[in-house]
Automatic annotation (TrEMBL), chain A:
Membrane spanning stretches: 50-68
Protein's name in the database: DUF4367 domain-containing protein
Keyword Transmembrane: yes
Keywords of this entry: Membrane, Transmembrane, Transmembrane helix
Originating species: Salinibacillus xinjiangensis
TrEMBL record, chain B:
Short name of any one Pfam family annotated for the protein: Sigma70_r4_2
Top-level taxon of the source organism: Bacteria
Keyword Transcription recorded: yes
Domain RNA polymerase sigma factor 70 region 4 type: 112-163
Keyword vocabulary terms for this entry: Sigma factor, Transcription, Transcription regulation
Organism per entry: Salinibacillus xinjiangensis
CDD domains, alphabetized: Sigma70_r4
Membership in a protein family: Belongs to the sigma-70 factor family. ECF subfamily.
Protein name: Sigma-70 family RNA polymerase sigma factor
Amino acid sequence: MKKSRFDDKLQHYFTSQTNDMNNLKDHTWENIQQRLFTDEEPESKKPNRFVVGVAMLAVVVMISIGTSTTTGQAIIGSLKELFEPNKQVDIAIEGDKEETEVTLETKEELDYIIYVDDSRYKMVKGDTDRIVPKQELGEQYPEVSMEISQHTNTTIEEQMKKATNEVINEGLAVRREGPVNEPLPGKFVKYMEEEPNEWDSPVYKYYFFESGGNVFVIKQEYFLEASEGHGVRFDSMLESFEIVK
Amino acid sequence: MNEKPLIKKVKKGNQKAFKELYDQYANYALATAISITKNKNDASDIVQETFIKVYRNIHAFDHKRPFKPWFYRILINETNRYMKNKTKHQSVSTVDNTIEMFTYKRNDENLIIEEALNQLEEINRTPIILKYLHDFTEKEIAEILELNLNTVKSRLFKGREKLRTILGGMTDEKKQV
C-alpha cells in the first residue's frame, strides 16, 4: 500500500510522542525494580474482584455444602440480604454501553455465586453447570457456552493437562497462558488455531482456581467473530463469580 | 543485543538483560499507553504492570514466535483491565492530570492530530495507534487485539475516515485504505 501524506503525518505524530520520555521511563523503571527485585510479596496486591459489570440476572448456585440444611437456609438468608434483589448494571460491547435490570435468584446448596445475564443466557445446572444462549443459535454457528465444574482429588496442573489433551485433538494450540488475579487467583489458558482467520474459528478459554482443596474449572467456548460479544459477556459474568465459604 | 538471545537471558532470570529489554521497549510502550489513556500517570502504571507480567510469565513465551506482538498483547490487555477498573472505581474526577500529560515537544499540527485522535472511539483509536506508532501489519494487529482480520480492517478504515473528517483540510489527498 502506497503511503499518503495523511499516513506520514500520523506516523510523524506518533513517533514524536516517543521522544523526551526519559523522566517517565526512569520513574516507571524504579517502580518495576522495586516491585520485582525488592518487595517480598509482590503478589499480595489483589485487585477488587467482585464488581458487577454486566446487565444480568443474579443466580446463586449451591453445589457442595450438602442438602437442605439449617446452615444452608441461613446462608441463603444472609445472601439474600447481601445481594440486591434488583439492580441496573452496564456492560460495554464494541464501545457501546448496555443497561439491563437484574434480579436475584437463589438455590439451596451454596458453593459459589455468579450473576447471569438472564436476558441472553440461561443456566443449565448439573454436575457441570452450563451457561448457554437463551435462544438456540442456528446450525451454522459453533458451540457457545460457559461451563463451571468442580473437581475433587486433583490439582490445577492435572486439570490443565486434561484440558490441553481435549482441545489438541481439535487442532487447537495454546495461544495464551499464565496466572490471573480475576475473578480468583488461579491459572488461565486460551486455545485457538495457529492462524485463526475464519469467522467461526473456535476459541476456548479456561480458568482454573483452587478452593477448599477442590479445583474449579471454568471453560468458555465460542468462535472468533463472537469474541467481542459472547467472549466479553462471559468474562463480565465471570467477574461476579464468588466462592461462598 | 539481538532480541532472541536477550529474551533467553531474561528467561533465565538475568536482571541486566531484563533492563535492556525494558530500555528497548519502554518509550514506545509508554507512548502507546499514553495515546490510549491520555494520562501519563495511568500509562506509567500500565507499563509497570505490563513489564512485571512479562518478567513473571516470560517462561510461557514461545521463543519461535516474535516477541513484539506478544508484548503488545499483554500491554493492550493490561490497558483495558486498568481502564475498566478505573472507570468502575472513579467517583467524580475523570481527567485530573491529563492536562500536563505529554512531556514531549508538541507543535500546532500535533495538537490538532491529538485532539482528532481523542475524538475517536477506543475501538478505532487502538488499531490506529498500533498501525502508525508501531507499524504493525493488520494481521499482527488482529493477533494482538484477538480480533478477526476483517474486523481490524474495518476498524482501521472507519478510524481513518473519521480522522480525515475531523482533520478536514489538513490532508490534501485521495482516500485510500
